Amino acid sequence: MTSSAMPPVSPVPEPQAAVDAAPGTGPVGTLLTERPPVPATTGPMIAIDGVSKWYGDFQVLTNCTTSVTKGEVVVVCGPSGSGKSTLIKCVNALEPFQKGQITVDGTKIADKKTNLPKLRSRVGMVFQHFELFPHLSITDNLSLAQRKVLGRSRDEAEAKGLALLERVGLKAHAHKFPGQLSGGQQQRVAIARALAMNPIVMLFDEPTSALDPEMVGEVLDVMVELAREGMTMMVVTHELGFAREVADTVVYMDQGGIVEAGTPAEVLGGPREARTRSFLSAVIG
Ligand SMILES: Nc1ncnc2c1ncn2[C@@H]1O[C@H](COP(=O)(O)OP(=O)(O)OP(=O)(O)O)[C@@H](O)[C@H]1O
Ligand SMILES: [Mg+2]
Q1: Regarding beta strands 99-104 and 44-55, do their DSSP bridges make them parallel or antiparallel, or are they unpaired?
Q2: Is 88 in the pocket of ligand 1 (CB under 6 A)?
Q3: What is the DSSP string of 189-206?
Q4: 55 lines ligand 1 (CB under 6 A)
Q5: Higher pLDDT, 37 or 222
Q6: For residue 284, what pLDDT band results from cuts at 50, 70 and 90?
Q7: Which ligand is in closest contact with the Cα of 53?
Q8: Residues in Cβ contact with 88 at an 8 Å cutoff, skipping those fewer than 6 apart
Q9: Strand-pair partners of 55
Q10: What pLDDT, on the 0 to 100 scale, is given for residue 283?
Q11: CA-CA-CA-CA dihedral for 236, 239, 240, 246, to nearest 10
Q12: 3-state SS class at 7
């Protein structure tokens, strides 16, 4: 997991709590009936094919093959050190790999001719730690990459940022700095910042695991809403409630390999593999 120093979080009392009520309408999954079906005819948005990776002598990924179809939500779970973050970082070309192939929307990411900055600008990534710029206002955090990478004007970028802040229930905080927001609020800003780039796919690496428990729901609600709208998502999380209700596919990883994959009912309800069963009983308790 790459983690930069987290800006100080000062959960200031919220006079605008009513205005800024977290988005979503209730517990995870209550919106699912509105979710558009995954189109059956489209090719994979992400195709991971026989990927292996080594750090020196240590093999961190072993022959991983899986895919994410357009509009699909894939949850990746597994024990600490199993390679989940490494795999998701390979998808965004933040980590190189030595064997196999990954394509994103048909583009081979390891191809020397691929314009990686352009590809990355279309792949939204949200990490465990929010990685907002602590010295920039929320508005500037949201508009910087839009202006620098996409060439949008300041007005256009700020308007887009504000619309997305409204969507994640934080419009009234646009003028603040990250340190003045709670962890859950900062993570919702980080999601809005990724969405401002009009991503074709969103990658999440344990977006709620650094949050106080009472803030997990507000971030999951934003993610449920995204899924409902048909966003293609690959999500590393231990939030099995989210996986059960939102995921189309659950991938279980152990020791750098994909042990099994299937629907939430298959993998979480009746896992084939002993390793998956023992992980689930440890997580569920
Ligand atoms: N830069 C690195 N150099 C060497 N080994 C690394 C490096 N990054 C990760 N590893 C090792 O690779 C393995 C997989 O790490 P990774 O962060 O992908 O696991 P993870 O499944 O995301 O774990 P967690 O649930 O704790 O986040 C671990 O054994 C880790 O120690
Ligand atoms: Mg990780």
Answers
A1: antiparallel
A2: no
A3: HHHHHHHTT--SEEEEES
A4: yes
A5: 222
A6: confident
A7: 1
A8: 76, 203, 205, 234, 236
A9: 58
A10: 85
A11: -70
A12: coil
User: How far is CA 39 from each of CA 89, 158, 201, rounded to the nearest angstrom?
Assistant: 26, 33, 15
Res 90: pLDDT: 97
Residue 70 token pair: 């357009």
> What's residue 34's pLDDT?
54
Summarize pLDDT for 178-209 with one digit per residue, the tens: 999 999 999 999 999 999 999 999 999 999 99
pTM of the predicted model as reported, rounded to 2 decimal places? 0.86
Provide Rg for the chain, Cα atoms.
19
Q: Report the distance separating Cα 234 and Cα 185, nearest Å.
A: 21
Query: Could you tell me the end-to-end alpha-carbon distance of the chain, in angstroms, rounded to an integer?
Result: 25
CA–CA dist 256, 34 (Å, integer) = 35
Nearest to 32 by CA among 195, 165, 220: 220
Identify which ligand lies nearest to the alpha carbon of 80.
1
Kindly state if the Cβ of 96 falls inside 6 Å of ligand 1.
no
What token pair was written down for 232?
């293609």
Distance of CA 244 to the CA centre of its chain: 16
The residue whose C-alpha atom lies closest to atom 26 belonging to ligand 1 is 80
CB 17 within 8 A of CB 165: no
Residue located nearest, by CA, to atom 28 of ligand 1: 81
CA–CA separation, 259 and 111 (whole Å): 28
Q: For the segment 241-276, what is each residue's pLDDT rounded down to a tens digit? A: 999 999 999 999 999 999 999 999 999 999 999 999
Q: Cα of 53 to ligand 1 centre, how many Å?
A: 11
Q: What is the rounded average pLDDT of the residues 74-85? A: 97
Which of 52, 54, 55, 253 for a ligand 1 pocket mutation test, highest count of atoms within 8 Å of Cβ?
Answer: 55
